[in-house]
Structure formats: C-alpha cells, structure tokens
Write a structure and sequence with these properties.
By secondary structure, this protein is of the alpha+beta class. It has helices at 6-29, 40-46, 50-76, 89-97, 106-117, 127-146, 151-166, 174-186, 204-214, 221-229, 238-250, 254-262, 264-267, 288-297, 305-318, 332-345, 347-360, 364-373, 378-399, 402-425, 500-513, 517-526, 542-555, 558-577, 587-601, and strands at residues 271-272, 280-281, 430-432, 435-439, 443-452, 455-464, 475-476, 479-480, 489-494. Helix 1 (6-29) packs across helix 3 and helix 10 packs across helix 14 (288-297).
Length: 603
C-alpha cells in the first residue's frame, strides 16, 4: 500500500480489525462456485447494519488491490502466481455492496479513492485498482450529497483523476475519468468556478471557458457547468430538464451565456486530434457532453435567435470530416443535440428549421430522427434511408483509394503461391480465400493472412470444441469454420524481412505452445500479461468464467469448473430474465444458459 499516509494505514488497520470476524465467516464459506448473495453466510453478511458494513467494504477494496499487485509483481519478475477462488472474493463483496448507501466518513472515502490511485502505474493498468477507485467514486458521490465540498474527498478525487491521466489512456481515462471530473465540478467550493471538466485539446474549450468566466458572478455558474457536463444520451432526462429550467429562471443573462457557448462552434477551426482516429476534431471527446448540454439548455431560452442558431450548429456538427477516408460527423453530439432541441421546441419556426435540415443532412441516423420529429410516415422514412445508403455507397466507391485493392490482390496471389502449400503440408486442409483451418480433436486452429499498409500479418486463433456456444459458428460441409471473433485465444505474427518461412515457424511455435490444455488454463487463472496472446476476456468476466470452467472440466479440475460455471450461469440467467419481455430471448440463448446451469451442477 505504498503511497498511503501514516494515518491512512492506521485507519485501514482499524477497519480490518472491525471487519475480521464478519469477513472470516463469509470467506470460509466462499468457494467461488456460488455467488455471494446465494450463500447463507453471504446473505447474513448483507443483512448486517450499514455501519458494520463500512469496514467490510474498505477491507474488501484493499484486498482487491493487494491481490492484483501481487499478481502484477509476479508477472514482472516472470514468476507464476496461482489464483484461486479467494481472489474473486473481494470483488464479489464490492459488487454486492456497490448499491448500498453505507455511512462512510469523509476519511473512509478518501482512503477508498487513494487505494486505487496510489497503486496505478503508467506501464500497467491494474484492473482491480479501477474496481476500488470506481467504488470509491460512487461512495464520494453519495457523501458529497450529504457533505457538499468535503475537502478530503475533493482532494482525493483530484489525486484519482491525476492518476488516471498519468496512465495515458484514451479520452483521459474514459467514463471513470469523466465521472470524476463532473463530480469535482458539481462540488467546487462556493465562489470558485472550476473548469477542469473542459477538455483543452480543441479550439472550443478556451472560448467556452472565457464565456463562463464572464458570467462567474452568477452564484449558480458552477451548477450550470456540472449540469452541462452530465448531458449524456440522445435526449435529456426529466430531472435534467427541470434543473435547466430552474437555472434559466434564476439568471436573466442565461440566454447570453448559452449563446456564448454555442456561437464558437460555428467559427472555430478544426484541430489535429493527436490520435489515429479521427484525424481532426471540432471538439474533443471530453467536451462532447458539454456541447450537447448547451444545445439542450437552449430550449429554456425564449429568444428569436435560438432556432436559427440550433439549426446551424446541427448542420456543422453533422458535416463530414475533410479527411477523405473519414466518414464520421465533425461533432455528432452537437448535431444530435441540436436536432433534439429543435424537436422539443416545436412550433412553426422549429419545424421549418427541421425541414431545412432534412433536405441538407446526409447522415442516415439524423435524417431518421428529423423525419420522425416531423411526423413523416414510416414508408417515406425508409425510402429516404435507402436512398441515402445508396448515395453513400456510391460516394465511397468513387473516392476509394485503389492502392488498398491492389495490396489485397497482391496478398491473395502471395498466399496462393507461397503460403497455402506450406499450410496444407502442416495440416491446414480447409481454406477459404486467405483463411485456413486445422481441425484437431479438442480444437480448431485458425490462420488468416491480413494485408496491412505496414505489410502482411498472420492472424492466429484457437477455438475450443469443449466450450459450448450460445450460437453456432459457420460451417462448410459439416466442418466448423470459426472466424477471428469466435476464437478463444488469438495471436498475431508479422511477416518481416526474413520472409514467410520465419513467420510460419513462429506461428507453428505459437500453436504448439497452447496445445496443452493445462498451459491454457494456467494462462487464464494467472491472467498473465503476454504480448503474443489475447482475446480470452477480462478476469472475472462472464466470458472468462465460461472458458475457464469448461477447460478446467476438460483437464479434470471439477471444483474449479463448477465454481466458474456457476458464477457465469448466474450472470447469464440474470441477463436472460432482464431481456426485453415483448421479444423474449432467442431459443438458442435460453438453451445455452440452461446448459451452463446443468454443467455447473454436475459432480
């Protein structure tokens, strides 16, 4: 627990002492074969008073992080670290307590957040550190509702955000990072305008920050920042809409502020994104909720300029990227938000603007929404959609670069001439195009030659026969032909300057390495980080449990098999029961879940 302060170590010690008796009883009954909520001891634990569950939650978060660190240290030193059912126990406890409103103190929440942030490393993403941090962020949200502006919690949120930023993940840490930013923005100290929620990687953020600072004298300016940053989904919730109306009514310059946020979208220049896709941004991903929120907020501004501005924002947001190979919109959030706001405004002017947009927008999803808002009949909407799809296909064909097609033809000729004879001699006696299959007793091995701009790559895969599937894989003349997405283990070998023969030898060694089922099971249980194999799912995920369970059964480890399959079956049964009641689950899916349950109960 490097990075915790002395008083935090002492707090953790006290929590562990208080939780010891409760945790020992449940842990001794937990084998991994039965979900925690289904164990008598687990149900007894969850019935404990909320104040007694606080130390249990903190202890579980610490245990989850510690176990992940032990595993990572073993991987760094090339040592084997063998996990058992006890390793999933802390995460099960956190999941079971995740929705409980436990009476954490501010120092408890600070500890939960720091447990995650102090154990993250830039060279490795520690999954269970994310679990502890996500649990801590949820606890922070609830505590700040009762104690707005609690300094230890806000400081810990700041450290957690910095730890996520230090990992260099795409979009600054994804949903967890965005949630932490929003939470900090909601609870900035009175009189302080916290604009850290703005993503500074585009040309809009600076203009938006300048507008917000001009209105900083408004007491609720920070509340507007928090509200706009929470604009997710296709349309605002009733609670979001009520809060926007309240803010609009409380500030006479609300319209000026909203217009100041939207106007720059019409004049800012595109900026390089700094990521492979897309190559340029109108607004960076972190600012898309904010922009969408500004369009929604315009509904509460009853001024003549609103309709026209929303239409222009929607049109620019829906425009295609200037890059010839990019078909995504410049800013789908702005386009979607503008369309939704116009539909919500209604009235002759808004409907006229929507009709203008319908004639100019070439994006199928937006055209459908506009037509539905205007009340067009379904057959007219479908006819327009088909026309737009044909136009898009024609445009793509006309603008297509001939070089990729030439590269694919050269790759196919190379495979027929040099690769195919080598693979058939090695037992890959089934093929289609540049994909080859080798059938063995317990698996099907797959090799596909992919042509990339950087050269040829051999995509490798293993599909295990012992794992039942919810849906069948493609077949040809009774022989399974699993595709890349069906494979349980995957790998990749680059064809380098030393030629195809060297790549072929490397591929043969890769398949041989995973021929023993014991080796595959050890890989799954240890969650080892290797560069040459991937694709089996995150540890503890239902997919990972299904694969581990059936391979454990195949090697004779019945206890592990029952435990993993029971947990997977419980998850999928919940998914099955939560399925759309009108359509119902497919018969294949229902039968597969029943098979999981039956296999989990087998001795």
């Amino acid at each position: 627990m490097d990075g915790l302060r002395t008083e935090q170590h002492e707090l953790l010690r006290r929590h562990r002492e208080a939780a010891l008796d409760l945790v020992l009883i449940v842990a001794s009954a937990y084998t991994g074969s039965t979900p925690l909520r289904d164990l008598p001891a687990g149900r007894a634990l969850l019935r404990e008073p909320a104040e007694r569950l606080v130390p249990v939650a903190v202890s579980a978060a610490a245990a989850a992080v510690e176990r992940r660190r032990f595993q990572q240290d073993a991987a760094d030193s090339d040592r084997s670290y063998r996990f058992d059912s006890a390793d999933s126990f802390p995460i099960e406890v956190l999941h079971a307590l995740g929705r409980r409103r436990l009476p954490f103190a501010a120092e408890d929440v600070e500890l939960l957040l720091d447990l995650g942030s102090t154990t993250m490393r830039a060279d490795r993403v520690l999954g269970r550190s994310f679990e502890a941090m996500a649990f801590g962020a949820s606890a922070a949200r609830r505590l700040l509702e009762q104690e707005p502006g609690a300094p230890p919690v806000l400081a810990a949120l700041g450290r957690a955000g910095a730890a996520l930023d230090g990992l260099g993940l795409a979009d600054s840490g994804g949903a967890l990072r965005a949630g932490i930013r929003t939470l900090v923005a909601e609870h900035a100290p009175g009189g302080l305008l916290d604009l850290s929620v703005l993503d500074e990687r585009d040309g809009w953020a600076e203009a938006a920050a300048s507008v917000l600072r001009r209105h900083a004298e408004w007491d609720d300016a920070q509340q507007l920042v928090a509200l706009l940053s929470r604009a997710h989904g296709a349309r605002p919730s009733a609670a979001w809409r009520r809060r926007s109306a309240e803010l609009a009514a409380s500030y006479e310059r609300y319209g000026e502020l909203v217009r100041g946020l939207l106007d720059p979208l019409l004049r800012i220049e595109l900026v390089p994104s700094g990521v492979p896709w897309p190559p340029v941004w109108l607004v960076a991903p972190g600012n898309e909720p904010f922009v969408r929120g500004a369009t929604w907020a315009a509904v509460d501004v009853r001024e003549r300029w609103v309709v026209g501005l929303l239409g222009r924002v929607a049109l620019r947001g829906a425009a295609s990227s200037p890059h010839p190979k990019v078909t995504t919109a410049l800013c789908h959030a702005a386009a979607s938000g503008g369309v939704e706001a116009l539909a919500e405004l209604g009235g002759p002017a808004a409907r006229a603007e929507l009709r203008t947009l319908l004639a100019e927008v070439r994006r199928r999803d937006l055209a459908k929404r506009i037509a539905a808002a205007l009340g067009e009949p379904p057959e007219a909407i479908e006819a327009r959609d088909q026309r737009l799809r044909r136009d898009k296909r024609r445009l793509v064909q006309l603008s297509a670069d001939p070089e990729p097609r030439a590269r694919q033809r050269a790759a196919s000729a190379y495979v027929r001439r040099d690769l195919a004879p080598m693979l058939r001699a090695a037992g890959f006696d089934d093929s289609a195009g540049r994909t080859f299959w080798r059938a063995l007793d317990d698996r099907v091995e797959v090799l596909h030659c992919r042509a990339r701009t950087s050269g040829l790559t051999l995509e490798l895969g293993i599909w295990f026969r012992v794992v039942p599937r919810a849906y069948p894989v493609p077949e040809h003349e009774g022989r399974p032909r699993p595709g890349e997405g069906h494979c349980d283990l995957r790998g990749r070998v680059e064809v380098r300057s030393d030629g195809l023969e060297a790549a072929g030898r490397q591929s043969a060694l890769w398949f041989a390495r995973w021929r023993p089922l014991d080796a595959v099971l050890r890989l799954l249980r240890d969650d080892a980080h290797t560069d040459d194999v991937f694709g089996w799912g995150a540890p503890g995920s239902p997919r990972h449990r299904v694969l581990t369970g059936y391979l454990a059964r195949a090697v004779g480890n019945r206890e592990l098999a029952r435990g993993q399959l029971a947990l997977a079956a419980a998850y999928y049964r919940g998914e099955l029961e939560g399925h759309d009641a009108e359509r119902g689950p497919s018969p294949e899916w229902a039968a597969w879940v029943e098979l999981l349950e039956a296999d989990a109960a087998r001795p």
